[in-house]
Amino acid sequence: MMQAKFLLAVLIAALGYCLFQIEIGQGFALGFLMLAILFVFGSIRERAHGAQLQALKARHEAMVAASTARIAELDELKQAVLAHIANAQQPHQD
User: Fold this and answer.
1) pTM score, whole prediction
2) Distance between CA 43 and CA 6 in Å, rounded?
């Protein structure tokens, strides 16, 4: 998708340059050049946001994995406490 936008920006810039060279209208040609520049900056900005999104997703997955591990540890601790309570409630035979 990014490559298509960049290619479109290059084509628009080339069209603007050609229009500028054949002097159809300098304002019209500069408009095409400005549009191409906006496409390039838009694609760069979108790529940066994509990288931020991937970083946040990785951080979220790490937090979920850590939480899952902590829950498993707490469950083991709970089982050990319940076993200790059950053992303490049984009458001792001396």
Assistant:
1) 0.47
2) 7
